[in-house]
């Protein structure tokens, strides 16, 4: 008997329409006309005997039946896409090593390390996923991850790679040739703050023994990438992990405001979920990284030439 299945074109149109809640935008996404999308949705509704969308002027509203149908169909479309990609790649996505990296750490440190691994093990395919530093390993499908913290993640084994060291930087037009004369001089400048790590300036000032009586003045930005761009433009001084700012310091587009580094109390760790410690790809990466990191220390950041206090 013939399967009771709608056309794949109709399901594509339905998926795009739900994601955009607009036939016009769905049409742009799929590269067809708006009338083509409307016709596909009408055909799907007639096939199912359901009303999938209600129209309220220019607005498109997913009905309760449409929402239930999409909840199931979206998972099946995802699975169909995975199977098709696996066929093109010649292997299942599940066989790939899944590596987690916070985006800034990946750009500033991870790319060179992963390039070396890919060169050493060209037959071990891996895929990199963005992740947060407070990763929940119990709920994650990652095989390993590089994250910042204090070494305590539930359900994972962690290996300290190096401590996080903070440095205060600014554009050359803000920072005097010899740097600021004292820690207290920081408070005379706008201090760019990281809204995702709001305690960094407090940590720095308290560690330096600076006594401040008023609120810390300066704009708030959501991540280090934005903070560095604005610091380069002269918005103010920024306290950032020294690891993230080496390229800018070497190029001279940022300068150390003070001749010192200060640890944050956290470090960068390589973490392995305990449930995946014995998988073949994890063992390959773990053994390779242990050899490279321990024997040659090639991925340990070199000390920055500042006085550490």
TrEMBL record:
Domain HTH lysR-type: 6-63
GO term, biological process aspect, one: DNA-templated transcription
InterPro entries: LysR-type_TF_proteobact-type, LysR_HTH_N, LysR_subst-bd, WH-like_DNA-bd_sf, WH_DNA-bd_sf
Domain of life the protein comes from: Bacteria
Keyword annotations: DNA-binding, Transcription, Transcription regulation
Single GO molecular function: DNA-binding transcription factor activity
Record-linked Pfam families: HTH_1, LysR_substrate
Function of the molecule: Transcriptional regulator of the ttuABCDE tartrate utilization operon.
Family: Belongs to the LysR transcriptional regulatory family.
Name assigned to this protein: HTH-type transcriptional regulator TtuA
